[in-house]
Amino acid sequence: MRPAIFTLLLVIPCSLAIIKKTIECSRVQRNSTCFIEGVSFETPTDEYVTAFPTSSHIIIESSEILHFSSQLFDALAETAFLTLKGCLIPTVTFRSDELHSLRIDNTGLREFAVTPFENRNLNTLIINGNPLSAIPPTVRYLTGLSILDLSNNQLEHVKLDWFRTMENLLVLDLSANRIVRIDIVPSLRLGRLKNFWINHNRLRQVAFFPDFAPALRRVRLVENRWSCEWVAQVRQSIWTSAIHVYGAEYLCADKLDGGLCCYEGDLYNSSEIESEHEERTYFDGGIASEQFPRAERMLARDDNREERQHMLLKQSYDVLEQKYRRLVEEKERLEQRFVNTVRELERTVKRLTTELTEAQDMIRTQNLKIVLQ
């Protein structure tokens, strides 16, 4: 009996190695970038037997992966740069000791998690154009980040203390979200942060700005709902710290202060703001009060193929609907910016015309004096 069991134990790993499925590159560019298209997992176990091609840069597009899990990150053999774009990937759980750059662009991402182990290899994290409304506190385990771009999502609330561990953070982009509150503790210092983009949000103020970033050199603030009191406070600090403020507003519903629109009084009821932010808890340090719902569990409970296909179609519909709404919002925003730009150009043309006329009059006067002499 024992020899039979021993033989079985030897056979099992061999059989797993035989059925390991390597995904092929759809095309390869000259710089050895591997493009992968049309990936779709039929069952939750597929991710455990998947192997990606050996390539330093992999771009996955036009695919449906309900959960890009830590096992799939493990399957990236020698990949340093991974891009997920134009896909349906609503959930990502990051874990990798090899990746230097991760980009998640327009994948319908709703849930992003980081396994609770320090990672000093990931240098760049870019998550753009997704219905992502919250980031997990476990993002602090990405201690090697120098570029963190979370722009053009649906974030509502950010705690900057989560980035305290990122000693090399140079760029933090939170622009084009729905952020109404950024929490900052008085002791926070992001010592190397030089670029801070928070334009196109719903912010009234940012506490301890710019003290929390002593090396800050460039900032974008336009298209928010700033308190006039806050704008007056930080204007001198920005000037003293030699911070370059990019962008300016010219037409405001209320007041214009130093190139920023600002508003007197409280525009919003604080209790209403709090109610807009559902408190979320995440897997952190081995304690989980509310983990991300794993897509493979949903599929595991669904043995009927038609129901599974229905769920995939519904996911696709939800993602397309979100993209449509964001495009409508972006269209309105761009139209307003276009109108503002045209009006500013008209004012510039008028000013230049006036200056040119004055210069011509001055030249005529000088020429007349010369003739008379």
UniProtKB/TrEMBL annotation:
<feature type="coiled-coil region">
    <location>
        <begin position="310"/>
        <end position="369"/>
    </location>
</feature>
<keyword id="KW-0677">Repeat</keyword>
<dbReference type="Pfam" id="PF13855">
    <property type="entry name" value="LRR_8"/>
</dbReference>
<keyword id="KW-0433">Leucine-rich repeat</keyword>
<keyword id="KW-0732">Signal</keyword>
<feature type="signal peptide">
    <location>
        <begin position="1"/>
        <end position="17"/>
    </location>
</feature>
<protein>
    <recommendedName>
        <fullName>Leucine rich immune protein (Short)</fullName>
    </recommendedName>
</protein>
<dbReference type="InterPro" id="IPR001611">
    <property type="entry name" value="Leu-rich_rpt"/>
</dbReference>
<dbReference type="InterPro" id="IPR032675">
    <property type="entry name" value="LRR_dom_sf"/>
</dbReference>
<keyword id="KW-0175">Coiled coil</keyword>
<dbReference type="InterPro" id="IPR003591">
    <property type="entry name" value="Leu-rich_rpt_typical-subtyp"/>
</dbReference>
